[in-house]
UniProtKB/TrEMBL annotation:
Signal peptide positions (record): none
EC class (word): transferase
Name of the molecule in the record: Sulfotransferase
GO BP terms in the entry: catecholamine metabolic process; xenobiotic metabolic process
Location in the cell: Cytoplasm
Domain (Sulfotransferase) ranges: 32-282
Domain of life (superkingdom): Eukaryota
Tagged with keyword Cytoplasm: yes
Family: Belongs to the sulfotransferase 1 family.
Length: 290
């Protein structure tokens, strides 16, 4: 196992195995019924995947388990650490409608998704908590680039040097296209505040209709506590040496505001000043503190 370096594709640093296989990813053609879930890493991807998967299976967790992948939905990439087969390999074996996950920024999403008007759900999380979660992930995932010390990591995040590129450009890219492309833009903090409301929003966007009881059941099954114990969602299927769960579990804390336990007041001020500059051209209603 080696930590992959990042290589730029159209100016965006991507993990090398994605960059090397870029042509096949860019040429990927989804079915119009396929559904895309897009996020900057650590924004709540797995949580949202679990909600969608359960909604598509009318809350039947056993039916979800019969899906042909040990994790919730294929990742739009070529390489996956064993024993998980690569995303494109899995997708070719599945019948649409398929739930497809990506961390690609908007401008790098294969254009056939937009030509085919695929439904797209984007999840965004406030920058500071997203950064903290990514830091722990880069420490535990032995294929991610070396995170280095915390202080330097903050700067890498601010400069957009982490894999999948700039958080700022990522959240803005989908935000600015959400109306034109009919993207459902969700916030992690809203999901924490009122998971039921957000499950219902997803259900309506997908033109699904499930009973009140099923909604309650889905909210329960997608709580942090239950997902942490669920082998379908806690990534225990990716063991050491790829994911070193003893450094940090995948389902780590699942809270809003954990950044306060990591940023010093000086780091926070420096980050906020830079944030104001990088985000001055948009008004995305992030809630960093609840
Ligand atoms: P933390 O590291 O802050 O705990 P992703 O799936 O995009 O990689 O995001 C992972 C983050 O989402 C982790 O954040 C994880 O704990 C959190 N998460 C996953 N499921 C959750 C749930 N049901 N409720 C709240 N947070 C959840």
């Amino acid at each position: 196992i080696a930590r992959f370096p990042v290589i730029k594709v159209k100016g965006v640093p991507l993990m090398s195995h994605i960059a090397y296989n870029w042509d096949s990813i860019w040429a990927f053609r989804p079915d119009p019924s396929d559904l895309l879930i897009a996020t900057y890493p650590k924004a709540g991807t797995t949580w949202t995947q679990e909600i969608i998967d359960l909604l598509l299976h009318n809350g039947d967790a056993e039916a979800c388990k019969r899906a042909p992948t040990p994790v919730r939905s294929p990742f739009l990439e070529i390489y996956s650490p064993p024993p998980i087969p690569s995303g494109l390999e899995l997708l070719s074996k599945m019948d649409p409608p398929r739930l497809i996950k990506t961390h690609l920024p908007f401008q790098l999403v294969p254009p056939a998704f937009w030509e085919n008007k695929c439904k797209t759900i984007y999840v965004a999380r406030n920058a500071k908590d997203n950064l903290v979660s990514y830091y722990y992930f880069d420490c535990m995932n032995q294929t991610q680039p070396e995170p280095g010390p915390w202080e330097g990591y903050i700067h890498k995040f601010m400069r957009g040097e982490l894999s999948w590129g700039s958080w700022y450009e990522h959240v803005k890219g989908y935000w600015l296209e959400r109306e034109k492309r009919n993207i459902l833009y969700l916030f992690y903090e809203d999901m924490k505040e009122n998971p039921r409301r957000e499950v219902e929003r997803i259900m309506k966007y997908l033109d699904l209709s499930v009973s009140e009881d099923v909604i309650n059941h889905i909210v329960e099954l997608t709580s942090f506590k239950i997902m942490k114990e669920n082998p379908m969602t806690n990534y225990s299927c990716v063991p050491s040496p790829v994911f070193n769960h003893s450094i940090s579990p995948f389902m780590r804390k699942g809270e809003v505001g954990d950044w306060k336990n990591h940023f010093t007041p000086e780091q926070s001020k420096m980050f906020d000043d830079d944030y104001a500059t990088q985000m001055k051209d948009v008004n995305i209603p992030f809630r960093t503190l609840i």
